[in-house]
Structures
1.
Amino acid sequence: MAQNIWIQRIGQAFNCSLVGLIVSACGGASDQNSQPLIYGGAKTKVGEWAGAVAITLHDSMICSGTAVNPRLVITAAHCVQNMGSLTEMGVYVGDGVEGGSVRPQYKVVKRNYSPKYTGNGNDMAYLVLDKPLDLPAKAYIPILVDADESAKLIRNGQTSHIVGFGNRGDGGFGVKYETDAVITKVTDNEVAIGGDGKDSCQGDSGGPAYGKLPNGEWRVYGVVSRGGACGTGGIWGQMKANICWAQKDSGIDLKLPAGTCL
């Protein structure tokens, strides 16, 4: 990463102030205040990637996330740790609004982050919602847990599709954007993605990375964690590393393939 500057990719709601262990670096359907670049990307089509949602605090977007079940959203641990009271957080579903000021449609009734989170690795958390998300079944992209599929999708040079509501190269924030970026490094439970102007940025924290299998089916596998200067690439946690913990701790059955969680 550029100049080894590592920042958690949280939103701009805190005006670049320190909150707990989190560094915010500025530069990063129904009643939803929505209007019909993630860094280096383009605006998603209306309703596209509906499972990519925004996490709010005091009616302002602070992070992105992935709905993996009508009641469960996956996001980054640093989006949850030391982040206000439970009643102050919410989830917004829609295409976004410039500036990131939205009324969430869903309340958070339970949250937790991985006990393995150290400030860098295992940067994953979950949010349990007060009611099921009003989304079509196709919005819930299957989580990548199969070893053979992982070998196809998580490898150097493979293209990843990233989505989020964060800061863009044009200076905007709060609208759902997408781009394709290349995987540059893989470790046991993290993936480095992007560079050459294709990247996540502040506000994309917790958002998804998707991969497309040769048969055309999509899988979700990444959770935005951290990175350097926007556009130089970032680090995504592999969702599968903590998904069994999330299922057990939340009490939400994610209907993972048999044998995934032993």
2.
Amino acid sequence: MAYIGNTDDDRSIMLKAMGLEQMDDLFGDIPGDKRYPGLDLPSARSELELLRETDELGRRNGSNGAVKSFVGAGAYDHFIPSVVPFLSGRGEYATAYTPYQAEASQGTVQTIFEYQSMMADLLGMDVVNASHYDGATAVAEAAIMAVRCTRDRDSVVLSGTLHPEYLEVAATYLRPQGIAMNIVGRPAGSGESGPDLETLEQQIDESTACVIVQNPDFLGRLHDLRGFAERVHARGALLVLHVDPIATALLSSPGAMGADIVTGEGQSLGIPLSFGGPYLGLFAARKKLVRKMPGRLAGQTVDAEGNRGFVLTLNTREQHIRREKATSNICTNQGLMALRAAIYLASMGPEGLKEVANLSYQKAHYAAALLDKLDGCSVNLGDETTFFKEFVLHVPIAAETLVTRCRAMGVVPGLPLSRYYPGRPQELLVAVTETSSRADIEELASVVLEVIQSAKSEVKA
């Protein structure tokens, strides 16, 4: 049942219709000592804590509840305030199509404008478009845009620690257009960490349009990017950063790091996992590059009478302009997902977003420290490696076997890296967000240890 808010005027009208003067009159038949605040109620709790408690009460009805998952790899279980699905599910939004006629779709265009504004502030960039399909397509489109902006350059350098699926999507986009891909340092073997920034810089030549780096990278590690953009620019190339938008609330913005184009997966911003989609492709750029930017931009203006209004100020799609001048064949945007992100950002606010980022960081490091102490397990916790909410765990048995057995005990401990890197059969990519309680993390460690000990006992037998 949806929550319906009532104003003071609404309440006055209803009381008058019932012949009552005040709200307390509704409870006249209830003894005074049984009314609030006479009830012995627990202290107020956050929405996340309250939902967790109601889920626990629900399990008493015989349901075993959901399996606890520590899988990330680009899609994360972050808390979504109830206001996000409530507002985004209203008929005005859920049934609206793309705003081809902006003058008749002012509400839709305004929400896009608000999304762009908040995202530009978060990323520290000049311009944000009205979204792409997902993070993978945003990366591919960024590479194409970089080639377009640098004109005579027709190749891109990509860090091997980009999400493997992003690399595959980029290849699908770029190779038919004759854009060469130089993937540097793919960490295929056990313990390999991928390229450092100096190695990436050395790969730039006169044909390189851009360098694409993910931070945090696919393995969860954070990189110190200070000064890197200047070195890339000195070689005539652009810097494209793919980021986790939650992490940007805690770290220096990609704009402050000198990025020319910024992409990201917006699923963390109020969008459920939903078995893989629909998601939200974030895409931002410097103002000087805006004419080469794919997608669309919503802008604010005033009409002839001075009233505030919203328009589509830039449409570089083939549906709006001559095909030969189009910058992309993307024919729609993830408007509903962008709306969810806008509501999420507005409801969380800067401090709330920082708290989510900080909790994710602290809880991930707590989990890594616990798992690192288990017999036969190890996490690189040295000073040279800093991670955000995701880390690689080396285990003494096959990671796929560990996951299968842990799942049967109600916990999915992570993603076996062998899915993408066959040479890493005993490593897990573990993700922890603010939704994991201390008890959840300790249960993870307990279940992993039990499975490992059981597997060792079987070997001895």
3.
Amino acid sequence: MRKKKKSKKIFIIFIFSFILGFIGYYIYDTYQNIEIKSDYTAEKEEYINNSTQTVESIEEKSENIADIIEQTTESIVGISKLKNNGSSIFSKNSEEQLGIGTGIIVSSNGYILSNAHVTGEKYATCYVTLENGYSYDGTVAWSDTDLDLSITKINAKNLKYVKLGDSDNIRVGETVYAIGNPIGFEFRRTVTSGIISAKNRTIKIEEENNTSYMSGLIQTDATINPGNSGGPLILPNGNVIGVNTVKITSAEGIGFAVPINTIKTVINKFKENDKFDEAKIGIYAYDKEVIPYLSYNSNFEKGIYVVQITKNGPASKTDLKEGDIINAIDGMELNTMNELKQYIYTKNIGEKVTLNISRGKISKDIVIELGG
């Protein structure tokens, strides 16, 4: 009886051991087939995947920008006031011989935007070379030396032209690219990059014993050399937001461009009507940022300060006086001379505008009929 109990006990132990062994084997086999991924490994793989996507995105973005810049440079021209004996103004030492500058094709039928100091004043002749090497005689159709902008016409068709952006909505810190011909043939259509450093800048320019002021400018640290004058300042999408105009030679990394919105109306009128009959108000005014440079005893927070009324001009026939502060035109608030010019460009000769002015403690409205 005791022997029978002992045999039964051994059998139970055997069965129990067998079950434990089977369970152990099953756990071991399952463990071997599980893909163990620690938190560290998972995070590492996710980081690698994200990094790969970031690199690919950057490369793709760079390729897109390169394509856009390449397309834009097809609409950039070289401009000279003197004619070269060869077939192109882009020849060796041409910058010294011919005074190479830059221009921007803004219409398919040959209107070119540039600086007034590059092309000369209205009716002047200059010489234009396209990206394909063809050279044309150009006639300055419009010029404003105060803005340092001009529009030249060449006899050409089906030209590739740039897209105009909105310079009113640019932001400090945005990436920009400047395109131009800094030293002539060998460095034609050079592209430099930077950011918008500031907006609405006013600078003092002293040339040949003459002092003038330019206001409302875009400041950039993109390299702008003398031959870049008249070239575009563009955003990464290719839209032109400014026309490169001057460089402060006493400081490195400071260049300026005239906002494109200042000239858009003029460009559109030339494109639509093949002409632009400029209406004039007959005054010149300074922004409040310019006043500290001057000896005028004037302190104002808004508006523009009338420093000159053109003799026998439209404003001279009214009660407007030098020293008045223009607060608004036709109800639109003014703070820069560029804003005034931009508005007048939308008007026609013979139309009337109403200026709201301050003269000391007096505020009044003055109506002016625009002249030609």
